[in-house]
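Sample entry (179 residues):
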Amino acid sequence: MKIKNLTVFCGSKTGNESIFCEHAAQLGHLLASKNITLIYGGGNKGMMGSLANSVLDSGGKAIGIMPKILAVKEHAHTGLTEMIVVRDMHTRKKLLYKKGDAALVLAGGYGTMDEFFELLTWDQLDLHDKKIFIVNSNGFYEHLVAFLKKVESENFLYHQISDHIIIVSEPSELNAYFS
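Predicted structure, serialized as tokens:
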């Protein structure tokens, strides 16, 4: 399947290591170079801002989806190709999932994990069949990957992890999937 729109989940904060925002910016440049539209939460700070700004600075398209309540807290990006304001988080997540041909997870906190696990759950229930990429920046998701492998080895999954989740260490490894 050709990826035309990629939904990306990531932090609205920068984290402690510069590599997180560096990888967000590298991903943004890659998306623009491959003519893949970014679909994301619509923020202009933290990793969200690094990602969106790098897409836009590279001549790409970025679509933000943000509930009214977060427009101030996450600092809504005012320079996007399109900003979709929705009434609540559930509507936001549903639209984020719907608009992307695949999803990608960069470093982030509770919100990123909530979105990731809901997407995994929907995958297990066969509500979608989209690839999910994890960029494991500087080993950020090592414990999560170990947990997922444990869940799989204990026979709690309906699909093998490798059938739906692709784990890379840095954005440049995604070139093979974004042709």
